[in-house]
Structure formats: structure tokens, C-alpha cells
Design a protein that fits this description.
CATH class: Alpha Beta
Number of domains: 1
Distance between the termini: 31 Å
CATH topology: Rossmann fold
CATH superfamily: Vaccinia Virus protein VP39
Radius of gyration: 15 Å
Strand order of the largest sheet: 5-4-3-6-7-9-8
Order of helices and strands: EEHEHEHEHEHEEE
Largest sheet: 7 strands, mixed
Number of helices: 5
Length: 179
């Protein structure tokens, strides 16, 4: 079961895509992630969020629940995109679902985003993830924070133009924060 942890929709359950195509971020990891982000961003009020490889939309919707202004939720899988659309409609969230690949989405001008989540399937290579992060640079707000979630076994290095802020492992999951 995936749920919103805190904010105006705290405790609300979210639908998750059927099948094995997604890997939801655990509540424990999301709680820690959002505590770190609250510190790094100074809160979520007015923040514009981009959630790439959105799955159920849980990360972007959690940010909106905590006060973010808007979330763009990007998912290429049909079933997952329909699930995200249902979650957005059920919450009446200020969010837009984009059914397109992350690579294609970041290639077009957009933003500015203050907070970006990248939680790709573990099969997506580290080089592909770094390429997506690099393509984001022109669409990021000043002092934007980017969070990359990967397997603890797959090292991640920030591409040129980004600075690492911190990283932390939670069992099989590791989060990298950069700007």
C-alpha cells in the first residue's frame, strides 16, 4: 500500500499501477527524503515539482500535499500513467500527467522546476540517468534540488554543472541529492 505521508492529504492511499513494472519508494525512505528536502528547500510552499518515472505519482503528490504549487508527473507506461491520472483526479491535485519518456520530456523546454525526482527502474543505466539529469539544467530554477533514487549497488555521479549535496543508503535503495 502506498500512501501520502504528511500534509493536506496525509494518510490518503494512492492507487499503484498493476503488475511488476514499478517499484514504489517505501514509506520509510519517503519520510527521510522529505525531511531532508524540507531542510534543503526551506519548505515546499510555492515549489514547482517534476517527477520523472513517476510510477504512481507518489513523490510528486507528496510534495504537493506538503505545499508545493504544482507537479509535472512524467510516466511512459500506459497503465502507470492512467493510475497517476486517477490519483491526481481523486486528490484534485494541481498536477499534470505527461505520458512520454523522461528523455523526451526533458529534451523540450520546460520549468522552471525547484524540485526534481528521478526514480527510474533499476534497469535504466547510470549513464542514461546522468544524461537525463544533464538535460534538465536549462529547465531548473536557481538552487533547484534534484533527487536521484537508485539501487545501492549502482553508483551515481553527478554530471558536470551539478554539485552533490548528500547521499544516503536505505538497504537496497540509495538517494543522491544535488543541485
Amino acid at each position: 500500500m502506498t500512501r501520502i505521508i504528511a500534509g493536506r492529504w496525509g494518510g490518503r492511499r494512492l492507487a499503484t499501477p498493476p503488475g511488476d513494472g514499478t517499484r514504489p519508494t517505501s514509506d520509510r525512505v519517503r519520510e527521510s527524503m522529505f525531511a531532508s528536502l524540507n531542510s534543503l528547500l526551506g519548505g515546499f510552499d510555492g515549489v514547482r515539482v517534476l517527477d520523472l518515472f513517476a510510477g504512481s505519482g507518489a513523490l510528486g503528490l507528496e510534495a504537493v500535499s506538503r505545499g508545493a504549487q504544482h507537479a509535472d508527473l512524467v510516466e511512459s507506461n500506459d497503465r502507470a500513467a492512467r493510475t497517476i491520472q486517477r490519483n491526481v483526479a481523486d486528490l484534485k491535485a494541481p498536477a499534470r500527467v505527461h505520458k512520454v519518456t523522461a528523455q523526451r520530456f526533458v529534451a523540450a523546454p520546460g520549468g522552471p522546476w525547484h524540485l526534481v525526482f528521478l526514480d527510474p527502474p533499476y534497469a535504466v543505466t547510470t549513464d542514461e540517468v546522468a544524461s537525463i539529469v544533464a538535460a534538465l539544467r536549462p529547465s531548473l530554477a536557481e538552487d533547484a534540488v534534484v533527487v536521484v533514487e537508485r539501487s545501492s549497488r549502482d553508483p551515481f555521479a553527478w554530471p558536470e554543472g551539478f554539485d552533490a549535496l548528500r547521499d544516503k543508503a536505505y538497504g537496497e535503495t540509495r538517494l543522491w541529492y544535488g543541485h
